Amino acid sequence: MQKIRIHNKEFIPYLSQSEIELAIKRLAEKLNADYEGKMPLFIPILNGAFMFAAELFKHINIPCEICFIKLASYAGTASSDNINVAIGLDKNLKDRHLIVLEDILDTGKTLSAFLPDLEKQQPASLKIVALLHKPEATIHEIKLDYNCFKIPNRFVIGFGLDYNGQGRNIPAIYQLKED
Ligand code: IMP
Ligand code: MG
Fold first, then answer.
1. φ, ψ (nearest 5 deg) of residue 135
2. Which is more confident, 169 or 76?
3. Which atom of ligand 1 is nearest to the CA of 103?
4. Which bin fits 118, alpha (ψ -120 to 50), beta or left (φ > 0)?
5. Residue range 67-109, pLDDT digits in tens
6. Residue list, ligand 1 pocket, CB within 6 Å
7. Which domains, and CATH codes, for the chain?
8. What is the residue with the minimal CA distance to atom 12 of ligand 1?
């Protein structure tokens, strides 16, 4: 694998496509076992989780549903805090087994703002799945229930993740090259 350039930055190979796909297949096997008979509702968060969700879904073989959502952030009126509103969540979540899919858990800000909204709707259960996790970057404590890779606190792209809008299409994960 070659290093790649996006905008003004260079990235080096970090996780290969086959490594990623194998880890996702293993994760699917766990979910198939844990959610048998529960008709889980998968909730991938766009844009980043689209490729992870597609790869995972190929290997989910139990009855289930999926609903992609996008978190739109609006500036709060009274404070500088942003409010995240889920767009596209058109299902009744009460008594459902929810599985939120994220590309990466970084600071935890996104999920810590959004998960209370899901909890309010009284699901039967709520679990968090992230393809990647940067433990050193976490500020907001989020209980990660399933994770494929723990990675160091360096910027990565590919497999759905972008740098300024580009790189999502790359089928492997690349890490920002050190100067
Ligand atoms: P958090 O709210 O800080 O946990 O970050 C969540 C979002 O930030 C992820 O869903 C990604 O879209 C983005 N993000 C965090 N780290 C990276 C990275 O290394 N590369 C690309 N996107 C990232
Ligand atoms: Mg994202």
1. -60, -35
2. 169
3. 10
4. alpha
5. 999 987 665 554 456 667 788 898 999 999 999 999 999 999 8
6. 48, 102-110, 155-157, 161-162
7. 7-73+94-176 (3.40.50.2020)
8. 48
Amino acid at 128: I
Residue 151 CA, distance from chain mean position = 14
Backbone phi, psi, residue 36, to 5°: -50, 125
Query: Which residue has tokens 């709520």?
Result: 126
C-alpha 172/C-alpha 53 separation (Å) is: 15
| Continuous H helices in the chain | 17-34, 50-57, 109-120
Q: Give the span between the Cα atoms of 148 and 79, in whole angstroms.
A: 36
- Average pLDDT of the chain to the nearest whole number: 93
**28: Cα separation from own chain's centroid:** 14
* Tokens describing residue 116: 């209370």
| Residue from 106, 117, 145, 162 carrying the catalytic annotation | 106
| Sign of the CA dihedral with 143 first, then 149, 32, and 45 last | positive
